[in-house]
Each structure stands twice: as C-alpha cells, then as structure tokens.
Amino acid sequence: MSFRHLVTGVLMLSTASPVLAEGTASCLRGINLAGAEFGTPPGKHGESHLYPTEKTIAYFAQQGFNSVRLPFLWERLQPKLSQPFDVEELALLTESVRRMRVLGLKVILDPHNYARYNGQLIGSTAVPVKSFEDLWERLAKQFGQDQGVIFGLMNEPHDMPASDWLTAANGAISAIRRVSRQNLILVPGTAWTGAHSWFDDWYGGSNASVMLNVKDPADHFAYELHQYFDEDFSGKKDNCSRAADALAAIDKLSTWLRQQGRQAYMGEFGVTRAPACIQTAQQMTQSIDKNSDVWIGWAYWAGGDFWPAEEALNIQPTATGDRPQLAGLRASLDRPQNAKACKALQN
C-alpha cells in the first residue's frame, strides 16, 4: 500500500474533524541540529561549521526526540555542479546519519540552500534544474537503502515563482524515484514555505494551488511547512506577538490538508524563553498532534553545538541543564504515537 493510499484510508474515517485520539502524538517529534550549514564553503570542519556531536545527538534522543532534521550546504557537499560529492564532506554527513540511526532516530536530510547554489536560483542558467536532480539522485544512491532517512528537498525556497519551484521539485522527486521508492520525500513550497502564507499569491500562484501538482511516482511524500511567531513570522525577533495568527494558520492548513487528502510536516518553529512563548510552543505541538491524521510531525528550530548561547530560540543544553523552551515540547514528546497513522514511517 502506498503512503498516499494509507493516508487516504485514515482520512476517509472523517473529513470534518481529526480522527485520532487527543492523547496520541504525531509520528515525528524532531529537532533541527544546526551547524553543518554554517560558514562559507568550503571552510574547515570544527572551525567554520560542525556536524552534531555524539553528545548532542544522545542528549536529544534521551529527551524523547525521535528524529533529527540535519541541515548541510549543497556547495560544501558538491563543490562542482553535477560532479561527484566531496569525499570528506560526504564522509562527515554519512557518519552523522549513522550516529543518529544507531540511536533509532529518523533523519531528514536538509540541503539548507533556499533554492540556490552559490547565490544563484535553481532553474537559472547558472544552476539548471538538471543539477538539482543530480544532487538528489546522488543522495538517493547514498542513503536510499535506509527507509529511516527522509529526503527534505530544500530549505525555504523564496523569491521564485511557485511554478518554477514546482518544476524543480518534481524533477528532483523523479531523480530520487529512479533510485529508491521507499524513502519519504518532504516537499516545501516557495515564499519560505510559511504556513501563514500557504494560501497567498506571492510570486505567481499560491502554494495551496500550485503545489497540488507535485508528482511522485511512489506516492510517498508530504509537504514541509515552517512557522514562527514574531511580528513578521521570520523567527528573528525576540517575541511571539503573532502567535494567535500562526496557530490559526495551522488550523486552516489542517482543514485544507484533510480536504485534499494530503499530509504535511512542520519542519521549523521555535520560541524564546518568555513564558508566553513557551506556552505557544506547547499549543503548536498540541495542534499538530491533535491533527496527526494530516500532520506527520514537527521539528523544533534549533539545537546544535555551534549555536551561540544568546541565540533566542536556542534549545541546546547549557552547563547548568535544559533550556526552558524544552518545557513547551514536553507534553508532545511524552504522548504515545498512533500506530496506524505512523505505519508508513515505522523503520
């Protein structure tokens, strides 16, 4: 049974309201472990950028996170388009994935490039779609034998028409499926793939309309959304003043996903240590869990060994213990999963 058919079977139980018990959780409770996407390529590992350490990976696994979204830079992994990967960088990425998988964590591979390579848009003369397809065909050959590795096509495409991004996304999906049909693919929209803007026409067609035309021969994909809570939804301001609007966007998307027979993944959200913002994180994860027939999970932004201590959304533990934001995630981390909803993501 394909992923989409499994999803449709669950959704058919109810089209008006969530079908899962309120006490169950979505399938992926994740953390973004940033660091490998830092610095200007190529740089030196440990100085300009850093893959997560074993200590950090183990900490988040012990806290109950069951997945990691792992950002890295396309240019560092593949210094020349459509050419073999850099041997050292590939070894670092592969070893990082191995460490996570040994602990039972699922891994979302995240080229953290905003639909660009050296600042040039995918689909431009400098970065043809074929080069993006090549990236993903090579990644699928490296990781496609492990169903516990999930392919996140790209971090936050922006300032490009939704139709152009759709062409690139469908090309990459086709390239992946020539190698493996078992790995889940996460497909963002354009406009930074914001949940609050999913229905808005930013660059010639909304994500809600254009991205309905995603084509996956294996029928095994979900949309990736991001959502922050500050005044411009960027996550760069030290507040959560638009929390109500952000949470309303999740409710609207849940209804739309159910109507379309699709699923989504909240790949980034984060809050400051203010008590009201920590409560917002709890509300966000509760909403996703309540609608876990259409949301496969979430990943908090962010942890990682290279984050400065003063970074507002940072959840990397300090020498004195856990960050306060962890309290906003605790209820979701402790909820049991719904076995039927998570069947396609068991490995």
What can be said about this structure in brief?
This protein has helices at 3-11, 54-62, 74-77, 87-102, 129-143, 162-177, 207-210, 243-260, 275-290, 326-334; strands spanning 28-33, 67-72, 106-111, 116-117, 120-121, 149-152, 185-188, 221-226, 264-269, 295-303.
How would you sum up the major sheet?
A: 8 strands, parallel, barrel
Strand content: 5-15%
State the CATH superfamily name.
Glycosidases
Averaged pLDDT, please?
92
Number of domains: 1
Q: Assign the CATH class.
A: Alpha Beta
- CATH level 3 topology: TIM Barrel
- Write down how many β-strands occur, each being a DSSP E stretch of 2 or more residues: 10
CATH architecture: Alpha-Beta Barrel
Task: Produce the secondary structure layout.
Blueprint: H1 3-11, E1 28-33, H2 54-62, E2 67-72, H3 74-77, H4 87-102, E3 106-111, E4 116-117, E5 120-121, H5 129-143, E6 149-152, H6 162-177, E7 185-188, H7 207-210, E8 221-226, H8 243-260, E9 264-269, H9 275-290, E10 295-303, H10 326-334
Parallel strand pairs: 1-2, 1-10, 2-3, 3-6, 6-7, 7-8, 8-9, 9-10
Antiparallel strand pairs: 4-5
Helix pairs in contact: 5-6, 8-9, 9-10
Structure description:
This protein is α/β, with parallel strands linked by helices. It has one domain: Glycosidases (TIM Barrel, Alpha-Beta Barrel), CATH 3.20.20.80. It contains 10 helices and 10 strands. The chain has helices spanning 3-11, 54-62, 74-77, 87-102, 129-143, 162-177, 207-210, 243-260, 275-290, 326-334; strands spanning 28-33, 67-72, 106-111, 116-117, 120-121, 149-152, 185-188, 221-226, 264-269, 295-303. An 8-stranded parallel beta barrel has the order 1-2-3-6-7-8-9-10. A two-stranded antiparallel sheet has the order 4-5. Helix 5 (129-143) packs parallel to helix 6 (162-177). The radius of gyration is 19 Å and the shape is globular. The model is unreliable at 5-21 (pLDDT under 50).
